[in-house]
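User: Can you predict the 3D structure for this chain?
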Amino acid sequence: MQHSHSFLSFSTESLLSELSEDQLLEILFKDMHKPGPGIVGIGDDCAVVRAEKDNLYYLFKVDATLENVHFEPSSPAELIGRKALARALSDIAAMGGDPLYVLVGIGINKNEKIGKIKKIYEGINALAQSFGLLIIGGETTLSEQLFLVISIWGKTEGYKPILRSGATDGDSLFVTGVLGGSFDCGHHLLFIPKIKEGKWLAQGQWATAMMDISDGLAKDLPRMARASAIGFEIDFDEVPVRKGYSIKNALTDGEDYELLFSVAKEKEETLLENWPFEIPLKKIGFFSKKGKLDFPDEFRGFDHFQKS
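Assistant: Here is the predicted structure, written as structure tokens:
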């Protein structure tokens, strides 16, 4: 568990390694202009802008994928490109949205082979086509380290996007799929973004709060709890652990890209009866005014700026 510090605890001479990702964001955006009505800014899976048309919301997301952080140099080029887009699509899914357009930025070493670069884009394009997503532009730049930056635009039309901040006392807590070992077993390169599942949960007004699990349940669930200003209780025996891995893997490994969401207690049974997808759904706990806001010290999810 990362003990919380206010941005006031740090000076301009503090090192990045002394902060968590959440603390850095708090510092960077502290003095920025706050968005007005109809806009959801920093702190959710996507930014949300309400359109002039009734019940139309646009979703915006920028996502970076870096060599030696999100993939190995030996990872297949097509799967590197696929993952870069899949990560951004997972955030659209977490809002219950439909993806529309994407911009692709890439940083490449001057000694990289053209064939590898081409295969990266083939991986991006294949996944984009499978979701009816249009690639409408991008950027290329020189870099010592390979990286991709995906900017994606989506929407919810006829229904509101699901935010992280809607959970209330007594809501049941669900997760799709299984958790843990994703990077080790290769799932992180091959996962299917839960666009259909997220949209179904949003359109049917099942989920009260939702996000995707990218940094591990032990990192992401407390983010949802803080956004909703409520604690949580977890049944560790009910957490769906990938075969061959431990509960610690399931809580802290990250790179799962499953949906984590809350449902009103009275809808729980109906949800399970009507769930139309093959991917398993598991109740792992509930939100409570008397619940915790973090996990025990031995469980800590992924953080870009903290040592493992």
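The chain has two domains: 34-157, 172-288. The longest helix spans residues 77-94.
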